[in-house]
Amino acid sequence: MAALCVATPALGQRPISYDSLAALEAPAPTTRIAYGPGPMQFGNLRVPKGPGPHPVVLFIHGGCFLQQYTIAHAAALEQAFADSGYAVWSIEYRRVGDEGGGWPGTFEDVGRAADHLREMARTYPLDLRRVVAAGHSAGGALALWLASRDRLRADSPLRVDRPLPIGAVLALAPATDFADLHAKGVCGGVIDRLMGGSPDSFPERYRDVSPALLAPIAIPQLVVVGGQDRNWGPGGRAYHASAVAARDSLVRLVDIPDAGHFDVIAPTTPAWRVVMQSLRDSFGRTAR
Asked: For residue 65, how far is the Cα from the chain centroid?
């Protein structure tokens, strides 16, 4: 599938930063729900107005898989999605620096949080026939991984029976090739700490979770990258190219020339219009 290059108005300022994104105000979520016993095992649920059932955005925040980057910076995005008519299940999870974070706890948490939607749907008007997994940066990789859990090897410690079906993936500036990120030593060598070692030491772990090794996922995927995102944009483009080479006909790339890394999750930027259209397109491609 050919990439789509979408022009946006010039920003007229530097791309938004993590700190400025975290400072954006948003109302409290509808409720905060624990999906496990640990302090990081919870999510924010935002339910839009109306009787529902509502299509669900399962959102996973990024931050280099590191403890210091928390769910708090996703609040404005969560609310913007909810204001557009989607129920939003935005999850926190153990990361490097948290007790139990890294392999396999980080991935176990994300899978467990996704599957907890079945329990939540007994109380809230959620349409689990229409679930889009969306994530930013590290969270983009985790969203792609969620969509491929049914393809894990039989003896993987991350394999579960009946993983929640994902209808489509919206991957925003995703971190896609764990081996390449390990070799580059990104974020202070976080991949070594996340995976417990190198790709040579634990090749099966990397095969289980690295999006670059999971293609073709065989569900609709929309990869959104910013043209000014020098660090993470190339990985998203490389994932798209490798998925196409693997004959994945369901993957698309949207390249926003004027956007930086955090512009794609900030409702205050010109790029947000493209992100929202990408989300609507993703729901349009899910099975009903």
From this structure: 12
